[in-house]
Amino acid sequence: MLTAPVALFTAIFLVVPILYGLTMAFRRINLTFPDAPHRWIGLDNFDAAVTAPGFGGAVVRTVIVAGATVVLAVAIALASALLLNEAFRGRFVLRVVMLLPWVVAPVVTGIVWKWIFNRDHGVVNAVLIQLGVTDGYRDWLTTPATALAVVIVAEAWRTAPLLTLFLLAGLQGIPESRYRAAKMDGAGWWARFRFVTLPGLKLSLLSVALLQTVFSLQAFDTIYAITKGGPAQSTTVLNYLSYQASFRDLDLGEGAALAWIVFLAVLVCSAVTLTLLVQGVRGHRR
Amino acid sequence: MRAHRLRALVVYGSAAVLLGWAIAPLLWVVISSVQPERNITAQPVHVSFADMTFEKYRTVFADEGFRDALVNSVVVALCTTAVCVVLASLAAYALARLRMRYGGAALVAAIMTRMIPAIVVVIPAFLLLRDLQLIDSIAGLVIVYVAFLLPYAVWMLRIFFEDIPPSVEAAARMDGCTRLGALARVIAPLAAPGLAATSVFVFVSSWNEFLLPLVLTSDETKPITVRIAELTGSSGGYFDVGILMAAAAVTALPPMVLVVLMSGRIIRGLTGGVKA
């Protein structure tokens, strides 16, 4: 049938590799011993991955990055969506322009923000000094905490536009009649926001928060461009740890195990999102 | 009246902030790329219109590695888009028109594949391509990209195909068209904007890919994203940032131009319909 070529292609070049990747997580594959057979070792890779010294830190950092980017990106997206929902001159132009951060390659985004936070010549330091906020030039990228912050800002800048679009769609789904009813009851703009807008957006906000969590779990290019996991592993999140295991330590088995841990986390988030969405749709049909 | 002016102030003020937030980093890249080094590295940084120079761009394009990478990016993206959109059209048509038993499940599965972190696919893809002797080849890269992007392309195209009333098709088939013929001659032209938007989406996605080509290509076929990452790593000590910014601008420009041209349709495809 018509879908046969697509199904076949996807099966061969996507599904099969993914499944093979799964089996790799259960085998001993280490490129420093290239001739060793790929023995099946059950959960040993997972065990080694989870008990490795870097794992706990990576998990903590992943949670921090995910949490912070969700808060930041969703806040930006909500503000942007509320703004774009209003009628004003240039609104459609703004809608296109605000999309641009999403369109730039993540690698380039990393490079750009790395330059903005550059210690000696970056814009941030220049502005801070001019404003008199700090005296010395801050080295954002060699302090663990601030390096993570730079990654978070860069990621939120990059993904907020897409979230904005979804929230905007959600906003437009709130019936005008509710706002009118609220106005007739004498509600000011803040009350209308609290009692009409926010409840109406509940589902959208949840979906968008979970979507951003998935994005954060997958983040790689920006981290590679900004810090390469440094300084001293302080921006190494789980996804990046998997990359290091495979390409620096050449332990493909452990890398695969870590990758699958990340994938599982993503699946859980996606499943939660889909369940909520389905329930939401059913709820509205009542 | 006062409330009116206050609203205008808040709205246009916020619009300016949003505009600045989105654009300022990109503008800074452009500015940094046309200023001579001494301006950019001055403390505080000094920007002057009179000093504007395109020498960074000249240097960037003089670099053979960069030019090759640019060509690679273009070729890979174009091929991926062509193959992907054609294949996806078939599947999207089937899902949109024919009632398929597993249609719903197929769509959900399609969305889920987008959730896969590239890292899961990268090494198996590497091993697969190596066995096919397609490492560091355009064909190999295109195959992997297409596989990765097909589900999303199908999802987007289905939305556009569903917009077309079946009666148009029925008319064509009554005139003797086969299903495939109807698809090519009647539906495709009607869905042209949607096809264009999906094509842009696929093109931009493959242009921006980084991890996959990092692993799957070497000197022959590395695209511009990998090349630019190399430019950052190569500096031990000091490095002319203007050149890096020029390279960044070149890398970022095509996707931006394409998306700006297609923005309305793409938004529709991504969100299933945002009004106006």
Key attributes of the depicted protein:
heterodimer; A: 286 residues; mainly alpha; 13 helices; globular; B: 276 residues
Please explain how this structure is put together.
The complex is a heterodimer of chains A (286) and B (276). With 286 residues, chain A is mainly α. In chain A, 74% of the residues lie in helices and 0% in strands. Chain A is built from 13 helices and no strands. Chain A has helices at 4-24, 44-51, 53-85, 91-97, 100-103, 106-116, 123-131, 144-172, 176-184, 189-218, 221-226, 238-247, 252-285. In chain A, helix 3 runs parallel beside helix 8 (144-172), helix 10 (189-218) packs antiparallel against helix 13 and helix 12 runs antiparallel to helix 13. The two termini of chain A are 38 Å apart. The mean pLDDT of chain A is 85. Chain B has 276 residues and is mainly α. Chain B contains 13 helices and no strands. Chain B has helices at residues 2-33, 37-40, 55-62, 64-97, 103-114, 118-131, 138-162, 166-174, 179-190, 192-208, 211-216, 224-233, 241-271. In chain B, helix 4 packs across helix 10 (192-208). Chain B starts with a helix and ends in a 5-residue tail after the last helix. The chains are: A mainly alpha (286), B mainly alpha (276). Chains A and B meet through helix 1, helix 3, helix 4, helix 5 and helix 6 of A and helix 1, helix 4, helix 5, helix 6 and helix 7 of B.
